[in-house]
Design brief:
By secondary structure, the protein is mostly helical. The protein has two domains: 98 residues, no CATH class; 75 residues.
Length: 190
């Protein structure tokens, strides 16, 4: 009877998640459940740290983990020989990359805040540049809302737009105004 249940485990054919630069937390949660389902989680996190880990369980856990990481990460982990060593190394590497991403996003946000449109610059060129910054920041997982960008545009344009920006701020609803509406109003003034 035990043999038939092992056969059923093999027939399930679980699909492991691929680790990317942005999904470590979800990946780790799923992989832990998969490793538990195959009774090899103890190779990663033993209940008794002094107890020896079964070699077959360790190799199976390593196989499952290695299937879903990039070759680049695999090469970084080459010196680690057990699942117990590999798991925390993946965590450190992934969360470290996450910290770098957050730092990069904060740097981009600071640079975004300092953007100003030059007197001689065309509105279309400035807005294209501004949208590029917004896209870069969003690509790093940070959110920038429409009203935040609207207010930034109004702060960043030169004094030749002072009359129209004042009108928009006084009589328009900046909470609901779209980027397209603001750019359209500025272009009409330009």
């Amino acid at each position: 009877m035990a043999d038939s249940s092992k056969g059923k485990d093999r027939q399930i054919g679980l699909s492991y998640p691929m680790l990317t630069k942005i999904n470590y937390t979800a990946w780790a949660m799923k992989m832990k459940v998969y490793l538990q389902a195959y009774n090899v989680w103890e190779a990663v996190e033993p209940k008794d740290p002094k107890a020896p880990i079964e070699d077959k369980a360790d190799k199976r856990a390593m196989t499952m983990i290695y299937q879903e990481i990039s070759e680049e990460l695999l090469l970084k982990l080459a010196e680690r020989t057990t699942a117990k060593q590999v798991w925390p190394a993946i965590k450190t590497t992934s969360l470290g990359a996450d910290r770098v991403k957050k730092f990069k996003a904060q740097t981009l946000k600071a640079e975004f805040e300092s953007l100003k449109m030059n007197e001689t610059e065309q509105l279309d060129d400035f807005c294209f540049k501004l949208n590029g910054w917004v896209a870069k920041i969003r690509a790093l997982g940070e959110s920038i809302g429409e009203k935040y960008v609207v207010k930034k545009i109004l702060r960043a344009v030169p004094t030749k737009f002072l009359q129209i920006t004042s009108t928009l701020e006084q009589f328009g609803n900046l909470e609901t105004m779209s980027i397209v509406e603001v750019i359209g109003s500025l272009k009409a003034h330009e």
